[in-house]
Specification:
By secondary structure, the protein is mainly alpha-helical. It has 2 domains: 5-87, Rna Polymerase Sigma Factor, Chain: A (Orthogonal Bundle), CATH 1.10.1740; 90-177, Orthogonal Bundle (Arc Repressor Mutant, subunit A), CATH 1.10.10. Helix content is 68%, strand content 6%. The chain contains 8 helices and 2 strands; from the N terminus they run H-H-H-H-H-H-H-H-E-E. A two-stranded antiparallel sheet has the order 1-2. It is elongated. The model is unreliable at 77-94 (pLDDT under 50).
């Protein structure tokens, strides 16, 4: 459990900076926003009721601080328009989901051929599992099993490569590579 500002700094400093850099282009602005995030965390640490939810609480503060940054830019300069994409958390989720999807596509190439075909045909060519079974000479239950096994292998590969953070709907909202020499991402 994380309860002190020091432990939050140790845990979140680098991941938060990376999170902000994916949304803000200017390095000086990134540093300013990161400082503002930790100031807000420090100021409101006593309002954190459930230390089990520290991760979500910290990233909510970071998202809100980024939105505040764009609002201030729009107000001060009058040139940046806030779009619904910037304000919505689903944009953040889509970005992480899209980045992870690229890793998964690379991982598919490493699957055994029968699993690779099952995933490609059902997920990318949108065949039903019944159609997959007909095309590959399998029963419907055999086709379902093949797709489930292929998905399980992909999940195992992904979790071996990355640490993922999900929202309550199961969307990827952030991730960290476990190693720098991952052959997939």
């Amino acid at each position: 459990m994380i309860t002190s500002i020091e432990s939050i700094w140790e845990e979140f400093n680098k991941p938060l900076k990376s999170f902000i850099q994916r949304r803000i282009k200017n390095d000086q602005d990134v540093d300013d926003i990161l400082q503002n995030v930790f100031y807000k965390i420090h100021s409101s640490i006593n309002s954190l009721r459930d230390t089990e939810k520290t991760h979500a609480w910290v990233y909510r503060i970071a998202r809100n601080t980024i939105v505040d940054f764009y609002r201030a830019q729009k107000y001060e300069e009058g040139i940046i328009e806030l779009s619904e994409d910037i304000l919505s958390e689903t944009d953040d989720e889509s970005t992480a989901n899209d980045e992870i999807a690229q890793c998964v596509k690379a991982m598919i190439e490493y699957l055994p051929e029968s699993y690779k075909q099952a995933i490609l045909l059902t997920e990318f060519q949108h065949l039903t599992q019944k159609e997959l079974g007909e095309r590959m000479g399998l029963s419907v239950s055999g086709a379902k099993s093949r797709v489930q096994r292929a998905r399980a292998k992909l999940k195992e590969m992904l979790l071996g490569c990355c640490q993922l953070e999900f929202d309550r709907l199961g969307n990827v909202i952030d991730y960290q590579h476990k190693c720098n020499d991952c052959k997939f991402c």
